[in-house]
Design goal:
This protein is mainly alpha-helical. It has helices at 3-27, 32-44, 47-50, 58-81, 86-92, 95-107, 114-134, 141-164, 169-176, 178-202, 206-233, 236-239, 246-257, 264-282. 78% of the residues lie in helices and 0% in strands.
Length: 290
C-alpha cells in the first residue's frame, strides 16, 4: 500500500477501536434495534438525497446493506446488550479476518500469500492471549454466538464489496444502507410498537445521542467509506488482517474511559498481534517469488 492508503487504514482502525465505547454509551439508553434504526437514519438523511446512486444492481446494494450493516450490527448490538464485555466483543468480531480470507479464497479464488497466512496465524495467537486475559467468570454463551454471527456477517459484506468492484465508496455506503434501515425499523416496530420506540428516543440524553452520532457519521461514513475503498483496491487477504489492531485500540479505550483493567495477558497478546501485523506488512519482500 502507498502512504495514502496506509493512513486511511490507520484512521479506520482507530475509529473502529473507539467505536465500541460509543456503542456502549448508546445501548445504556436504547435497545439494539432502535439504536440501529437511529444510526442509519442519520447516515441516510440527507445524504441519500444529495449523493447519486452507484452504478450497481439493487440486489448487490441489498446484499451489502443486509450483511455488513444489518447483520453485523444487529448481532453486535444485541451481544453487547446481553452483557458481552466491549473488549471481548472487539476481540471476537475479528474472526471476520479469518472468515473473509477463507471465503475469498474459496469463492473469488484470491491467492493467500505465505506471509499473509503466517501473519494471520501469529495474530490469531495474540488474540487468543488477549481472550485469556479478558476472560473472567462465565462467558455469556448467547453473547459469544452473537458476536461470531456478527463476524461472519462482516466477512460476507467484505466479499460483497469485492464482488461489486471499484465504485464510489461513499455512494455505496449511503445507498447500500437503505437496505439496512428498513429491517432495523421493522424489527424495532415489531418489538416495541411505534409508541415504545418513541418513548426510548424521547428519553435519550446527550450521551446517548453522542453515541448515535459517532456511530453514524464517524464509524459508518468515515470507517466504512475508507474500508470499502481499501477493499476495492487491494486483495482481501492484504486488507482484512489490518483490522486485527481494532481490539488493541478497543482495550486501551476501555481501560481509559471505562476503567477496564489490562493484565499481563492483555499486553502479551497485544505484542503478539503487533508481531503478526509486522509480518503481514513487511514480510512480502521475504516471500517474494514464493
Amino acid at each position: 500500500m502507498d502512504i495514502k492508503d496506509s493512513l486511511i487504514a490507520l484512521a479506520v482502525i482507530v475509529v473502529w477501536g473507539v467505536n465500541f465505547y460509543f456503542m456502549k454509551l448508546a445501548l445504556h439508553e436504547v435497545s439494539p434495534m432502535v439504536l440501529g434504526m437511529l444510526r442509519f437514519v442519520c447516515v441516510l438523511l440527507p445524504a441519500v438525497l444529495l449523493i447519486r446512486r452507484p452504478p450497481v444492481r439493487w440486489y448487490w446494494l441489498a446484499a451489502y446493506g443486509t450483511t455488513i450493516s444489518f447483520g453485523q450490527f444487529g448481532f453486535m448490538f444485541t451481544a453487547l446488550s446481553v452483557g458481552m464485555p466491549t473488549g471481548l466483543a472487539a476481540l471476537l468480531v475479528q474472526a471476520q479476518v479469518f472468515f473473509t480470507v477463507l471465503i475469498a479464497a474459496l469463492l473469488l479464488h484470491e491467492p493467500v500469500k505465505p506471509n499473509h497466512l503466517l501473519a494471520i496465524v501469529i495474530a490469531a495467537a495474540g488474540l487468543l492471549l488477549i481472550g485469556v486475559g479478558q476472560y473472567s467468570g462465565a462467558m455469556p454463551l448467547a453473547g459469544l454466538m452473537l458476536v461470531l454471527c456478527a463476524a461472519f456477517s462482516w466477512a460476507l459484506g467484505n466479499i460483497v464489496v469485492k464482488r461489486i468492484g471499484r465504485v464510489n465508496p461513499l455512494s455505496l455506503v449511503v445507498w447500500g444502507n437503505v437496505f439496512t434501515l428498513i429491517p432495523f425499523t421493522l424489527v424495532a416496530l415489531w418489538q416495541f410498537g411505534a409508541e415504545g420506540v418513541w418513548q426510548q428516543i424521547s428519553h435519550m440524553s446527550w450521551r446517548g445521542w453522542a453515541g448515535v452520532l459517532f456511530l453514524a457519521y464517524v464509524a459508518t461514513l468515515v470507517g466504512y467509506v475508507g474500508w470499502g475503498g481499501l477493499l476495492s483496491r487491494h486483495p482481501a487477504s492484504k486488507i482484512t488482517p489490518l483490522a486485527l489492531l481494532v481490539p488493541v485500540i478497543a482495550l486501551v479505550v476501555a481501560r481509559l474511559l471505562l476503567n477496564e483493567q489490562l493484565n499481563h495477558w492483555h499486553w502479551l497478546g497485544v505484542a503478539v498481534v503487533m508481531a503478526g501485523l509486522a509480518v503481514h506488512v513487511f514480510g512480502a519482500r521475504r516471500w517474494r517469488g514464493v
